[in-house]
Amino acid sequence: TARKVKDVHGSRWRSATQQQERIPHKTILYGGDYLARSVVVVEGPTDVWAIGPGAVGLCGIDYSTDQLAALAKLPLRYICFDSSEEAQKRAKALATDLSVFPGKTTIVELDAADPATAPKKEIDLIRQLIS
User: What angle do CA 11, 12, 16 make, to 5 degrees?
Assistant: First the structure.
């Protein structure tokens, strides 16, 4: 997965095609190597970088059953998608899908457009959730 430097027509993000992937990107949690018992679920890599260890990216607002199963194993789950209407709709769908599993799922709404552009104060509050 890569991000275009300039905003050009179409999506800013681009992922390899299924034929090009050795491991399908929608089967992993980007940043999942650094999880303990809690997680902040975000959309993409720049959001993960902004929050740091404990955050995972889904590579978009859609998620796979593999990603859902991995998230279900963690007892504390915070979903922090972008503030757009569509992203918040998908965050609620993810929370609903996770609600049948043991543990607690909470949606975190930011004042900023997304975690990557959130001020340090908001990021610090999110970090406190997963510490």
Answer: 80
Q: Each residue of 68-79: pLDDT tens digit?
A: 999 999 999 999
Type and span of the H or E element at 24: none
Distance between CA 55 and CA 49 in Å, rounded? 8
- pLDDT band at 130; cut points 50, 70, 90: confident
- By the 8 A CB rule, do 78 and 94 touch? no
Sorted by sequence, the CB contacts under 8 Å of residue 54 that are 6+ apart come out as: 34, 35, 36, 38, 39, 40, 127, 130, 131
Return the DSSP state at 10. S
Token readout for 96 is 């609903």
- 23 or 131: which leads in pLDDT: 131
For residues 36 and 44, the model is more confident at 44
Measured CA distances, 107 to 24, 92, 115 (Å): 26, 7, 13
DSSP 8-class letter at 78: E
Closest CA to 72 of 123, 29, 108, 21: 29
Tokens 């552009």 appear where?
117
